[in-house]
Design goal:
This protein has a single domain, classed as Outer membrane protein transport protein (OMPP1/FadL/TodX) (Porin), CATH 2.40.160.60. The two termini are about 30 Å apart. It is mainly beta. The longest helix has 13 residues.
Length: about 475
Amino acid sequence: MKLGGLILLLFWIAQADAQIDSHYWTHQYGAKGLLLNGAVIASAEDETNIFYNPGAISQDDNLGFAFSFLSPTYSRLQADNFLGDKSQIADTGIDFSPGFLAIRFQPFNTRKLTFGIASFKRFKSNIEFKNRLTDQINDSGLFLLRADLDFKRKVSEDWFGIGVSYNITDNIGIGVSQFSAWHSESLRVGLIKEVFLSPNPTDIVASWRSDFDYNISTYSGFVTKVGLSSKIGPMKIGATFTTPTYGILRSSASYAIDDQRIVTAENRNEVLSNRDEVDLNDYKTPYSIGLGLEYTFNEICVSFSTEYFGEIEEYTLFSELDDSFNGVAEGDADAFIKVISKNQSVLNMAFGIQYKKNEKVTWLGGLRSDFNQDNSLILNNSAEYLGSAPDIFHISGGGMFRYGKNVFSIGLDFGFGHRSGAKQLADLNNVNIDNLFSFSGKENVDNTFFSGMLFITYDFIYNRIK
């Protein structure tokens, strides 16, 4: 009963939410992965090597059971000029970063072959912007503008995997991890632009109410990661290759669109509304290539890791031309929807340093980049939404403490990012009849990001290999 309850608790820990935009390197796992900020491709010396480098699964001398506790995280994402010059919207909150649960074992009582099982949340983000703007349209003061924005984007992806590593020699290991990846994402964009007469602000002159949302899911796709780990004197070398997602067993997609356009002077009142479940045409993730180095001299150890994620060229998530009245209307009632996605290539890097004070205490710190892959979503070839968060740089530090069979670590991580030149969703400082019914604006949006995280990890070593 106790073990079952513990597994349920740890499964819940691994599902914890996070209010951070998901880049490829947003989340790190385990004691060294967090403290060294991901500089562990050559030195993943605990159960996290199932993810970081499966070639190292059998190179570690300790078999254990590892998990990361809930990590409280404060984050703030601010967008300036997103709805017009001098406008400001922000998503601020305290949440929890994803955890990690894994175990390694040797079922054949040989050091040559080691297995591992891991469960963790690879991506988790929840970005939400809400804002209302009111202003006079021109100097005459005759017309008033009222605009509302409701923007929400969520991404979640869970990985469950098994890894196996074989020691070619005591200093060279090769391995492979096979993951089952369960992905879901959603987007909602609600934009209202309304023009009123100032003397009588209940009389509408023109209005556009546009509301669009979609949801897609894949359950499950597969991701394979192969790794090599080598020791040459005081140096360790690691290399990995991760496949794109393949072999999706089941997928789903749905959307809803509501669009109303009113121009009273033209007696114009048009409404388009449709919602449907559609086939997911495709879902793509990038391949990646990783390289890591670690060098130890005396009590100091320095680490470097880098990982390249390939470009994802433009492709269609789903599309549909559908009769919103299912054939009962005499006139044309077709609704068209097409969602296109693409990602840019990214090269991330991490540097770490550790100082072994004694057999029980080690101090660690690290720096890493978490570059935005510029995930673009293009709706009906007219509106384009880029990843909200800018390129982010992280700095972390803390300690790792050993007591008997227990390894306990605690540390802090801070992230900073700024990006200029993104495109406005709409320029509400410049509204006229020509652009009222469109997404348009300047490329002068500034995105600023900050996060602070307290993390705690625990590793129970149940067997030390001799």
